Amino acid sequence: MDEEPALIDSLRRHWRALAVFALLVATAAIVAERRLFPAPELEDETPVAPAQPAPSAQTDARGGGSDADKPAGAADAQQGAAKENPVAAVMSETVAVDARPAAVLKGQGKWDEAAKTLSSALEKLTAAVTKAGLTVNGRPIAVFTKTDDTGFSFEAMAPLTAAPEGKVRLADGVEIGASPAGKALKFQHRGAYDEIDATYEAIAAYLDEKGLDTKDLIIEEYLTDFKGEDANVDVDIYVFLK
Hints:
By secondary structure, this protein is an alpha+beta fold. The chain has a single domain (1-37, 98-242), classed as Alpha-Beta Barrel (Multidrug-efflux Transporter 1 Regulator Bmrr, Chain A). It contains five helices and eight strands; from the N terminus they run αααββαββββαββ. The protein has an eight-stranded antiparallel β-sheet with strand order 1-6-8-7-3-4-2-5. Helix 2 runs parallel beside helix 5 (196-210). The protein starts with 6 loop residues before the first helix and ends with a strand.
């Protein structure tokens, strides 16, 4: 996969561009400041409460009751607090992401139809993997490879237990490749995919606050399936560190 030098700069104009552009501007200022005044070493993982924890029949993402068990208005109060303090809208942890063999489907889309485009690509990818009799090893991901003001290019990937011997192409334009690897910060988005821009804004604020340097590489891992254009989807977002 080719890295695009301006990927983070332009990742979301419609959804992500403004947040990630602000991230880079803040990061550049922080880097300059740190060169003059070296900061003490950051502590390891600093978790903060998610704005929209994943729903569960028993507990939410922080071990408390689900939204259905909370008093009326509690969820709205949490969301309001997250808007006032965007850093508290995500949960982060530092992880080592290993490269894995993967079935890869390249695609393009418009920001207005991102959920539809990604869900369609993942369905086609799953069908090709199933037809080839390959074993999936993990949830599907999307690697954003190029963006502009109106749309984006991406690589949808299905991690595999092993790459098939002697086969580099599957049906419907699916190829065999590998997923990215490196040290990354893992964040959570829980809720409507069309509202993921708010999560990216919180991520930008978090990286700004911590003074972290990032690569031009962001991955979304879909823990639940898209169901309709306005689907709620559990997404883990990986921002790779320099």
